[in-house]
Design brief:
By secondary structure, this protein is α+β, with helices and mostly antiparallel strands. The chain has helices at 14-17, 19-27, 150-153, 157-164, 185-192, 198-201, 203-208, 298-326, 348-361, and strands spanning 35-39, 48-54, 57-63, 69-73, 87-89, 93-94, 101-102, 108-110, 129-135, 138-142, 171-181, 216-219, 223-229, 250-256, 260-265, 269-279, 282-292. The protein is 24% helix and 28% strand. The radius of gyration is 22 Å and the shape is globular. The chain starts with 13 loop residues before the first helix and ends with a helix.
Length: 362
Amino acid sequence: MDASNNPTRSLSARYYTDPAIYQAEKQSSLATTWQLAGHASQLKNPGDYFTFEIAGENLFAVRTRQGEIKAYYNVCQHRAHELLKGSGNKGVIVCPYHAWSYELTGALRAGPNIDAVPGFNKAEICLQSVRVEDFCGFLFANLDNDATSMDEWFPDVRNELTEFVPDIERLKPVKWVEVLENCNWKVSIENYSECYHCRLNHPTFATGVVKPETYDIQPQGYCLRHTTECQNLDKMTYPIDLDSNPRAGEYSSWFLWPMVSFQVYPGNVLNTYHWRPVDHERVVVWRGWYTIDGEPSDVIEQLAIQDRETTVEEDIHLVQSVQRGLQSRGYKPGPLVVDPKGGVNSEHSIKTLQSWMRDATG
């Protein structure tokens, strides 16, 4: 309960069903926060690039000849044509419309007949850059040039991730699982951000991976930190070596507002969630699985399949049912179960999450 001794109620349905709210979010929470762009392993060599999207903006990241990673809006400064598609390698970025070319640093290199234009100053033209940070090998971008750093947004997370996954900088993606959910992105993220529903709805996760009775979630800057112990070894659905790392017997997850989560399964197995909204009632969830140097792993393959067939599949039905319910005339926001002691049967994390959601839309 809050200070006035009244239960905190969930957000009204319009936050999840109104397309105008989603459009507002694209200008606020989705455009002024740190969003996952890709992985540093995608940009091994100078000229390597990949395209990505944030808040409806088409962007690309590239490694320069000096070894820096830069990110830019994917639009020519001449007459707005898209510059790049997909991924690949370019020594020079050439617009396919009129062949204006740019250095990997974003500076205009040349354009047909531009020297014939009186007063044309090539030095004044440059691709519009976007903030980008390397966070334990994962590349995050932010459309807000004045945004504070990721370490300020998410205090201690970088160090904690390294503690749980000591070789995180050597990890490369080995498995991607893409899932479309017919719900608002916030419905899916709220579902991820509490384990109040786990015992009833995720039997494999709750009996073969973690001990739900030890589960808790606490705010850490704009991060929600999930912690719990691993299930008894004789009940685990995959083998782990408790002596391999001081944290091997623990589960931890770091949800980074608004759309990314690093999740470390017992045995120091890193996987990620990345929510990518399609519109106000559809979201694609990308599940990533990683190994050192991208080496094949039977355990990771098994876990990815198990996760998709159990927890992920179970969540699809839950979040889609919630979205249908939010559209019902019969729904009125109910009180959140906020236990001051925290724990698995408390929705204190949802209270925090919804306060961020409310702030993001004014």
